[in-house]
Amino acid sequence: MPLSPDRLDRFARHIVLPEIGGAGQVALAGKHLVLVGLGGIGSPALQYLAAAGIGKLTLVDNDRVDATNLQRQTLYSERDIGHGKAVAAKRWVTGFDPALDVTISDRRIDSDRAATLVEGADLVLDGTDNFATRLAMSDACVAERVPLLSAAVGRFQGQVGAFAGHLPHEACYRCFVGDAFDADDCDTCAEEGMLGAMVGWVGTFASLHAVRILLNPTGGFGEPQWSTVHLLDGMAPAMRQFAIAKDPNCKACGSGVPKPDKY
Ligand SMILES: [Zn+2]
Fold first, then answer.
1. CA separation (Å) from 147 to 210, 233, 255?
2. Domain annotation covers residue 58
3. Of 6, 60, 85, 204, which shows the fewest CB atoms inside 10 Å?
4. CATH code at 170?
5. Tell me: the pLDDT tens digits for 21-75?
6. Cα–Cα distances in Å, from 84 out to 59, 125, 202?
7. Rounded to the nearest whole angstrom, what is the distance from the C-alpha of residue 162 to the centroid of ligand 1?
8. Which residue range is the domain that position 196 belongs to?
9. How far is the CA of 178 from the centre of ligand 1 (A)?
10. How far is the CA of 224 from the centre of ligand 1 (A)?
């Protein structure tokens, strides 16, 4: 569907980029992105993804806004304290661009819920802070053949990795981290501290990567970089990257292991 004059105006700086253009903007308007975790990574990521005109957004978080979040979770203001993050994030998107289609989920993720959330999506961006949720989302992505961008921060080290474990030679997130953390909650932010701009860097880099992946089928800019993890070092500062090999014994995407019923 062609863009209306209002939308052409709104996205004029995108459209003039040869790597996006009118066709790329129309493509973005037709995409469905699931954003899991509306905290320090998810907040700036959502702001840039909504600004990019990604037409359908599913926002997932079961947490509430706390005063200690405001130092880095840029979606929220004091009036949101005590409100659910998913509800507050939807309110932000609706005020920012009412043309976007937003649905929310504010229930804790388990494997069944993960599968329902992921079904039919073009991309999942996971910026949550615990491994149980990350692995549930990753396994659901492999099963539903949806690519996954995984973003995380610990102190001054960030990671953004792109996974397409449903493809024969590409790793999934579980190939990267293994099974050891299945039941653990690794939220260490409160004890270790977090610099707002550090987590913001990771969130905005993840949103850049998301646009790259969503535009790749129609041209865009660069490859999706499946099975590659970017490391963002805020202390140096510097970036580097490394490749993740597919684990043939991975219980989500490996070929040699019988799968449970669901995955
Ligand atoms: Zn795997």
1. 10, 25, 18
2. yes
3. 6
4. 3.40.50.720
5. 999 999 999 999 999 999 999 999 999 999 999 999 999 999 999 999 999 999 9
6. 12, 20, 23
7. 12
8. 31-243
9. 8
10. 17
CA distance 76 to 81: 8
- Which distant-in-sequence residues (6+ apart) come within 8 Å of 15 by Cβ? 8, 21, 22, 24, 25
DSSP-derived 3-state class of residue 33: strand
Residue of 141, 175, 189, 250 with catalytic role: 189
Whether pLDDT at 261 is above 70: no
8 A C-beta contact, residue 34 and residue 109: no
pLDDT tens for 182-192 read 544 455 667 78
Phi then psi dihedrals of residue 226, to 5 deg:
-60, 150
**Residue 205 reports pLDDT greater than 80:** yes
Catalytic-residue membership of 189: yes
In a domain, 252, yes or no: no
CA of 102 to the centre of ligand 1 (A): 30
**Segment 129-158, tens digit of pLDDT:** 888 899 999 999 999 999 999 999 999 999
Helical packing angle, 196-215 and 21-29, nearest 10° = 110
21 lies in some domain:
no
User: Structural domain tally of the chain?
Assistant: 1
